[in-house]
Write a structure and sequence with these properties.
7 strands; Nucleoside Triphosphate Pyrophosphohydrolase; globular
Length: 133
């Protein structure tokens, strides 16, 4: 049976663009050097809202206010299953990359799914439909 990971991530919008962080090297080639919504694993006893706040502070030195759940989606990779909970968030401070190789502000109409982690594809399609130009 594959490991099931629950992940909380932030949907951050500014000037009609979404904030994406790019992973560096990974033992899993299908997510290495791919964009993703910033966030991370939900720990035991932690809510999704708590996890997204903690992860953004740990990975980006970024404080956010967390709003509602925008979407959730479960995706099966070859080595594990991930359920992504994407929360609408607002930046409260500036950020600093600590664990990612880069970041980008991307207009929904310019999203290229092949540049993103595969688990994000369905949510990206929704964002393009709702916010695309």
């Amino acid at each position: 049976m594959k490991k099931h990971i629950r992940v909380a991530a932030a949907l951050l919008f500014e000037n009609g663009r979404i904030f994406a962080t790019k992973r560096g090297d990974s033992p899993y080639a299908y997510v290495a050097h791919k964009y993703e919504f910033p966030g991370g694993k939900i720990e035991e006893g932690e809510t999704g809202e708590q996890a997204v706040r903690r992860e953004l502070l740990e990975e980006l030195d970024l404080a956010v206010s967390v709003g509602g759940l925008y979407a959730s989606h479960t995706f099966e990779y070859p080595d594990f299953i991930v359920t992504l909970y994407l929360y609408e968030c607002e930046m409260q401070t500036e950020f600093r990359l600590k664990e990612h190789e880069s970041y980008a502000w991307i207009r929904p109409c310019e999203i290229k799914e092949e540049e993103w982690a595969p688990a994000d594809a369905e949510i990206l399609a929704s964002i393009r439909r709702v916010f695309g130009e």
